Design the sequence.
């Protein structure tokens, strides 16, 4: 009887664990949306790396799926770490966050980080051990940030300084892809590939700065915004400049005027992203006295940036479906 009761309790515990994981994902890491985001990010930048190398043959297979899964998994783990790192701030300003509301426990978060890290390392060992090591070091730095925020008070006071130290965990995923194509496509490193990463960094900075800005008269006391540090006009100018430079940089890298066929057209697609930059500016200018969602056009900007680059990579590369490694 005791054994049966214990088994039943264990089954309920496991069921509750998966329910909490599902609720955690539903609130701050909706799987379908983030899988799409991870796929667009990885595939677009990998395709560009191949296109701007001596290879020009994009190989699709199990390594592709493993790396998409790695992007998705690492971003999930980093989001779980942020849930702990930002707990004090969320308790005051974001009471609906899973850890604050009690939807998940601290033990749950620890398990997400540990299991997620081990799983990401295991699948990357199938490709190459340096990739597994890279994933471990990247997540390790994400964990280090929790200590750095306590050790360096400026990280809490300045969102820009915080970005300087925290953004590398995201940038690292682009460098992961650069390392990945060396093993899966025999792409040799060149400075041109770093320029592609630079454009991706600028595109994200547009998204990041615009989505965390607001007019001062609409800002809640203590709310962490880039505009609170440098002023709304300066934040809008800086964020918009990042978006324009990212798009201009991709045009210079792609040089669609030197291509023929479909690639001669798809190389110009990033220009359409300027529409979202303009719409974000218009959104701010039209809502000076009423609170609004600054993410309304910054999210479509970053998604379309990845999508347009992916379409160009598809058009410009040759393709090969592989069954092995």
Sequence:
């Amino acid at each position: 009887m005791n054994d049966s009761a214990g088994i039943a309790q264990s089954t309920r515990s496991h069921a509750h664990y998966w329910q909490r994981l599902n609720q955690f994902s539903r609130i701050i890491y909706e799987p379908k949306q983030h899988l799409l985001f991870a796929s667009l990010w990885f595939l677009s930048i990998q395709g560009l790396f191949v296109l701007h190398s001596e290879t020009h043959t994009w190989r699709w297979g199990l390594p592709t799926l493993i790396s998409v899964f790695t992007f998705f998994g690492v971003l999930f783990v980093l989001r779980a770490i942020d849930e702990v790192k930002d707990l004090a701030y969320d308790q005051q300003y974001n009471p609906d966050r899973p850890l604050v509301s009690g939807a998940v426990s601290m033990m749950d978060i620890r398990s997400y980080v540990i299991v997620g890290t081990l799983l990401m390392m295991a699948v990357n060992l199938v490709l190459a051990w340096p990739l597994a090591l890279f994933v471990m070091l990247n997540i390790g730095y994400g964990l280090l940030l929790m200590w750095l925020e306590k050790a360096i008070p400026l990280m809490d006071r300045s969102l820009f300084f915080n970005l300087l130290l925290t953004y590398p965990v995201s940038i690292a995923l682009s460098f992961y892809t650069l390392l990945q194509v060396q093993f899966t496509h025999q792409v040799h490193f060149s400075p041109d590939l770093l320029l592609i990463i630079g454009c991706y960094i600028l595109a994200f900075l547009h998204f990041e700065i615009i989505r965390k800005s607001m007019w001062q008269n609409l800002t809640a006391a203590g709310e962490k915004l880039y505009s609170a540090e440098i002023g709304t006009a300066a934040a809008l100018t800086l964020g918009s400049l990042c978006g324009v430079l990212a798009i201009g940089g991709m045009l210079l890298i792609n040089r669609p005027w030197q291509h023929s066929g479909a690639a001669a057209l798809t190389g110009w697609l990033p220009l359409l992203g300027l529409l979202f930059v303009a719409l974000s500016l218009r959104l701010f200018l039209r809502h000076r006295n009423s609170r609004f969602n600054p993410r309304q056009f910054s999210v479509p900007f970053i998604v379309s940036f990845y999508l347009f680059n992916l379409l160009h990579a598809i058009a410009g590369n040759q393709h090969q479906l592989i069954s092995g490694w």
Observations:
- Residues 3-12 have pLDDT under 50 and may be disordered.
